[in-house]
Amino acid sequence: MTELVQLVVSGLATGAIYAIAAMGFTLLWQTSGTINFAQGEFVMLPGFFMLGFLVVPNMPLLGAFLLTVLLSAIVLGWGFKRVVVDPMIRHGVLPLVIATIALGIALKHIVKVSYSVEAQPFPNLFPPGVWNVGGVAVSVHDIGVLLVTLALVGGLQLFLARTTTGRAMQAVAQNQDAARVLGIDVPRMILLTFVINAILAATAALLVTPIYLAKFDLGESLGLKAFYAAIIGGFNQMRGALLGGLLIGVLENLSAAYVSHQYKDAVALVLFVAIILFRPEGLLGKAEERRV
Amino acid sequence: MTALLEVRGVSRNFGAIAAVRDVSFACAPGEIFGVIGPNGSGKTTLFNCILGQIRPSAGQVLFAGEDVSGLSPLSLARRGLSRTFQSLQVFGGLSVRDNLIAAAQEFDGSLAARLFARSDAGLSERADATIRFFNLGRVAEQRAGELSYGQQKLLDIAMAFMAEPRLVMLDEPAAGVNPVLVDALKHLLARLNRERGATFVVIEHNMDFVMSLCHRVMVLAEGKVLAIGTPAEIRANPAVVEAYLGA
Amino acid sequence: MNRIGWIVALAALAVLVALPHALRSYGIYLLSLWALYAIAAQGLNLTLGYAGQVSLGQAAFLGIGAYTSALMMKAGLSFWSALPTAAALCFALGLLLGFPALRVQHHYLAFATLGFNGLVYLILRNEEWLTGGTFGIRRIARPELFGVPLRSPLDFYYLCLAALVAVTLMLWWILRSPWGRAFAALRDNPLRAESLGIDIRAYTLLAFAIGAACAGIAGAFYAPLVQFIDPTPFGLTTSLAFLLMVVVGGSGRFFGPFIGAALVTLLPEWLRFAESYYLLVYAILVVILMVWCPGGILAIPDRLRALRTATGARPEPVRS
């Protein structure tokens, strides 16, 4: 029983990171129809940004993180939209899919060539250590990750529901034409989602890099799982992305412990296939009528 | 007179909203049957119920005496019930001729036989005749995606008739089409009806189009049948005038 | 295909027959690899380019084909029984993979097939009793044909080339039949296709199955070509490479995969000096190509013509 609880908690922590990346994925899809195959690399790269900033003497981790958020917002938010998405979105989904795949490869190799092929150690935001809560040992890192994720999700939900800008963004996600009629600056809202996605990715990097170490291929399975999480939860629902991510994290942990460690990575795929066969709108999603 | 298409008490609800309420009508072979009504009167929902895109909440659809309620669009097409869509739906990457052949090639023989069939599936002559009939001769070898809107519209409608269906349901054929072409379209459809006995059901906003083309017209309002009759009867019906024409 | 197409194809074939005599064994090996990649890429071109179904699992089928032929030959069976088995197995698995495609489109499908590839990779790596795991399968023999052993690189190259010609003719036959038109109709507008009596379910499944079978055939030849297989070449990277081959060459153009496969197999060799920058340069070139001419290399003439006749004309959209 104790073991089960420990597995669930650490699974939740892993899942929370999938969920953050998945939420960014969902946002981009909702507002601009962009499927970002480079999402995993969007999490990998900020890790290296932070390492770069940490070279500066006496730079605190949080300072490096804030600078990274800024740099990510510019490069992976604004830059990505301007250079890759904008020129291509009118050609339909496929060229953009190909382009983001190629972008992912390019980002990996930029890091490989310019930084290192080897995994780099990365400082942890949270102190090492284990708390004992009623006989259950939970690592401080896991709790920290969960708290940061909760704060992030809560903050994002508040922003979307309570602020004028947030509500305008939701309107754009639901119906661009209607939003335009209401006088909402649609292009600006779309740009904002790209920036938010970049910030989410930078945060995920802060949480995940200490565990997996900064390595050029860090994003490979992360991006895939973020996508699966988004689908499993429901692609048109932010809460869905959260649920999907947590579910994958927990089930991966449990199946690694009780079923097969070697097939841990298949868990997300199996869930995903089950979802698209039996409930394609996702666990929390609303069915979209087939459009002409 | 046995009806080719008979709709019996079809209703469709979306949540608490009744989009179509207890609609019944029948369309005889050789007839041109029009469906009009203001926006939101349930025309498109009714069409989708008949054509298997959505499932009616209640009621029955009979085609040539057979209950076809809830059959898939594919089964309906194979039974000879063809349709067009409100928006343009052509195969943009194929030539006009290939669009037409594609529209009819799946009706004879088995899937396996088609792998070994002639490339044109024996439909070149029929495609040529259709191209002539719809005045598409100059663009026959062009990719459909490169044609003008009007030409694509003609092709779109021509495709619905290629397989020589028993009934064609046209969803707003005149929408977005310039007045000259609307007129040409009307004459082409009337000729198809006169010369080949083609039967069709037309949903349309364009009043003149419906009134001058159709033999009988059904008026929908708020999902219900307001009146069914000849164009002259419809024009004279006070309820219709009040609900729709007068506006 | 018109007369010019045939003349170009025959001329290219003549070059392919003559060329290896001017090459060393490594060059012949590369050319053989190109032929096999072109087979698999042509299959993907049918699935993706003609029928519009995104598949990122082509390397998995290459792997299944390769392991099938390697294991059957290790078990003492002939290559000529392994080849049809590999093709049939991949055809069946392709059908199976097509089922999600009946429910979802585009990006969902891309990730579903990518996931399938990941799963196959895991199985190849983990089921050591069958596949040898990361140790792989060694010393795979090259086949005989009518009692003549095809051991030399040159002999085996001609076998690969013959397979390429056979598969190309088969696909040409399929695509010129009414099936080809039905695939294109499925790609361009499934909704309309269905309303015109085209069984989009059947054609979707067929598109996946035929594409997969091509990769299975390529894989069956791949094992005796390299003579040692492990899971590495059948991972996601190779699947993405196949996708790039199809799209860069010109998705939905008959000869696109030949050019795409050449770029992916031969370019790295020429760009050896660039070492690890190669993939970076390649990826950036793909992004530029997609931005400027999403129809691929074979669409560049059309694109230039469009630019000349109407400035600001938009390139053809790629439908999927």
How many strands of chain C?
A: 2
Mean pLDDT score of chain C = 88
Strand composition percent of chain B: 15-25%
Shape of chain B: globular
Strand order of the largest sheet of chain B: 6-7-8-3-9-10
Q: How many strand units of chain B?
A: 10
Percentage of residues in helical conformation of chain B: 25-40%
End-to-end separation of chain B = 36 Å
Supply Rg of chain C: 19 Å
Model description:
With 292 residues, chain A is mainly α. Helices cover 73% and strands 3% of the residues of chain A. Chain A is built from eleven helices and two strands, in the order ααααββααααααα. In chain A, strands 1-2 form a two-stranded antiparallel sheet. In chain A, a hairpin with a 2-residue loop joins strand 1 and strand 2. Chain A is globular. The N and C termini of chain A lie far apart (52 Å). The model of chain A has no long low-confidence stretch (mean pLDDT 88). The mean pLDDT of chain B is 91. With 247 residues, chain B is of the alpha/beta class. In chain B, helix 3 packs across helix 5 and helix 3 runs parallel beside helix 6. In chain B, helix 7 links the parallel strand 7 and strand 8. In chain C, helix 2 runs parallel beside helix 7, helix 2 packs antiparallel against helix 10 and helix 8 packs across helix 10. In chain C, strands 1-2 form a two-stranded antiparallel sheet. The C terminus of chain C is likely disordered. Chain C is built from 14 helices and two strands; from the N terminus they run H-H-H-H-H-H-E-E-H-H-H-H-H-H-H-H. The two termini of chain C are 23 Å apart. Chain C is globular and about 55 Å long. In chain C, strand 1 and strand 2 form a beta hairpin. Chains A and C meet through helix 3, helix 4, helix 9 and helix 11 of A and helix 4, helix 5, helix 11 and helix 13 of C.
